[in-house]
Amino acid sequence: MSNSLDSYLVLSGLLFAIGTFGFLARRNAISMLMSIELMLNAVNLTIIAFGAFVKPLHVHASVIALIVIAVAAAEATVGLAIVIAIYRNKKTPLVDEYDSMSQ
Amino acid sequence: MTGIWYVLGLAAAGVGFVFLVIGLAWVLSHRNRGDGDKGLPYESGIDTVGDTWGRFGVSFYIYALLFVAFDVEVVFLFLWAIVFRSLLLGGLVSMGTFVLVLMLGLAYAWRKGVLTWR
Amino acid sequence: MNWSDLGSLAPIIWAVLTAAAVLLVDIAAPGRRAPAIATALMGLAVTAAVVLSLAGHTETAFGGAYVVDGLTAFLDLLFVAIAALTIMFADDYLQPRGLPIAEFAAVLIFAITGAMLVAGSADLLLLFVALELMVLPGYLLAGYARNDPYSTEGAIKYFLLGSFSSAILLFGLAYVWGLTGSTRVDVVAAALAQAAAKGSIAPGLAMGLAFMTAGVAFKMAAVPFHYWTPDAYQGSPTPVTAYLSVGPKIGAFAVALRLFVAALGPLKADWLPIVIVLAALTMTLGNLVAITQDNVKRMLAYSSIAHTGYILVGLAAYAGGQHSGISAILFYGAAYTFMNMGAFAVITALQRRPGVTSQISTFAGLGRRSPWLGALMALFLLSLTGIPPLAGFWAKAYVIVAAIQAGGWLTALAVLAMLNAAAAAFYYLRVVVYMYMRDPAEDAPPLSPGLLFRVGLAVTGIATLVFGLFPAILNAASSAAGVLKG
Prior knowledge:
The structure holds 3 protein chains of 3 kinds.
Chain A: H1 5-25, H2 29-53, H3 58-90
Chain B: H1 2-29, H2 61-73, H3 75-82, H4 84-111
Helix pairs in contact in B: 3-4
Chain C: H1 5-8, H2 10-28, H3 33-54, E1 59-61, E2 66-68, H4 70-94, H5 102-120, H6 124-142, H7 149-180, H8 185-198, H9 203-219, H10 228-235, H11 238-263, H12 268-291, H13 296-319, H14 324-350, H15 366-369, H16 371-385, H17 391-406, H18 409-437, H19 451-469, H20 471-481
Helix pairs in contact in C: 2-3, 2-5, 3-4, 3-5, 4-5, 4-11, 4-14, 4-19, 4-20, 5-6, 5-11, 6-7, 6-11, 7-9, 7-10, 8-11, 10-11, 10-13, 11-13, 11-14, 12-13, 12-18, 13-14, 13-17, 13-18, 14-16, 14-17, 14-19, 14-20, 16-18, 16-19, 17-18, 17-19, 19-20
């Protein structure tokens, strides 16, 4: 089933699953951020795959993918700024040590 | 009813692949147990200084953040440039507004002294 | 591009201009607080006037991606009010801690711009971008006190789970778009109606819809997608908590109205059970955990989860065929905005001196220390409980009545909502007991909120009272706005 829409959807589904797993399993805030970026890129692959194999979606796909890239960049910027702020306060990037509020 | 199979297959393959990767990582990462010298980056060279997780000066970070933000916004300029001729005045005004808003952000960062090297 | 489209977008353009003006004022006069606040409030007033001038119109712009209708106008006004109140309350908290107000106001107004864009979007992609524009500044606001470990800790939890849910929402969006062939809400609705008529919906499409539902549930903090809420709310600077508890929450419900009602309308019967279960879990768990809290901010965070549950009852009533569920949601959103922001404002007044915690012991003797603040806090808490004749009573009443009229399983849900309201009285009234039955701490200094703060507090108090005594005023507005096709 090479070079079909389904194979690309399976691939992007795998990437999304890896990203989800990384987000849930990692303790490091930066790794979690990277996992989220991987999830967003998996979505982009889904979008491009639909665009490449479904003719009427061809133009939309590029526009949507570019907008997703821009949103992902904005998200990464905000996220890194927050990670740096908390690193200055706590001196650790490990999220399970951010527990000063749980009772 | 091929649709349901493709969802099930996608789910199974997704879950399976994750465990496959973890399994491989586990198998591979236990190879060097018991032999400390084999784990060194250079077995017969000069010992490395500091650990692998050495850190860089944090004063880079605001540049890096600003770069990421402004760098990626440029993608919209490419789209605009491709169809520039057919957009006429409206396209020019829209993109001018867009760049103006971006410049306001840059001007604010500049005024706040973020761009001064410390 | 069509120039007349810009007319429909005028409120959003004014909001962006306001934020830009605040930044320009701060560039011209760095660190000056009064000019920045004045610019922000005047700009928001102009934005509100522009929204009102468009009210009553129904038009679409940008090829159908953006709509101006009653719902847009109602939500826009509510969001502008939220921003204005937050700015009024913020300076009393930020100034003693040496935090700048201009950036706060600008970031807040950008967030509100996103919320306003959500309110009017009739396109899934625009909905996603607007949602991101609403939540990204929210993460920054949560971590605004960047040297305070609690604030940054709340911010990172809010950010990580928020972005995770955005990615899930987007994944669902990609499948819905790919399999229906459009991001336009009406085209998606038509495709779904066709699928529903055939009696089978493609598995990929069903998966996409499920992912989108989960993403929206995260954003509105419905159980079991609520983990980020308590820490984000407790850690944030108190005026930011006031904003987060209403702005993004009502924004998420705006997404739900545009998505569930307009796009998924044809599948109502299919998602009704999901919404019923979400609503029941959300209000029950929120209330049960709120009872055990000793920190008032954290307690209000859990109670806001419970209120999400009550609002979901309205959505369930709509899915059950009762159209008044939508106007009940809008009434609830507006009433909740004023009473909840008022309650957080009183906490802000107590915390004006840095170092004061939001533990319940801080409230001991507030009724004697400061009779006005005590009375207002009691008013807000009674309204949150749902005691007549306050705004919160009518909010709950409309939602519950809509659910009972829909009948079936919704009657059981309505009964559960009433039981929950009774249980909630316990933890709200506990604070009132502390305020009036306990002696204040010996060293408690007098409380002296600023002028702007008093104005904002008066607005929330009067709104809670007036909407309670004359619910018809707000009900007329929410009913006019709640006329959605779908």
